[in-house]
Amino acid sequence: MLLLMGAGVITAIPLLLFAAGAKRISFTLVGFLQYVAPTIMLILGLFLFHEPFSLPQLLSFILIWIALIIFSLSRSWELLRKRKLNSKPEFQKM
């Protein structure tokens, strides 16, 4: 029973540290780190720990990153379009 309670505390500590750290940086950086962290773990697993990595896993990884790039680009284009619409000068009537 003591081991079970200890596991709960050990699980909560990283979450509390993440919440404290996320308050100190911008949301953009938090989002970027959320994208990059799994990729860094994959690279560490492959090259440091020599984990097996099959072709279907590689294809899945590539498809996920393609989807993330498409989503990010579409969101960026939408924000740029909104900025351009909001920054158009208004003509004064004479």
From TrEMBL:
Residues 5-72 form the EamA domain. GO terms for cellular component: membrane. Signal peptide: none annotated. Pfam families: EamA (PF00892). It is a multi-pass membrane protein. It comes from the Bacteria. It is found in: Endomembrane system. Belongs to the EamA transporter family. This is EamA domain-containing protein. It comes from Paenibacillus larvae subsp. larvae DSM 25430.
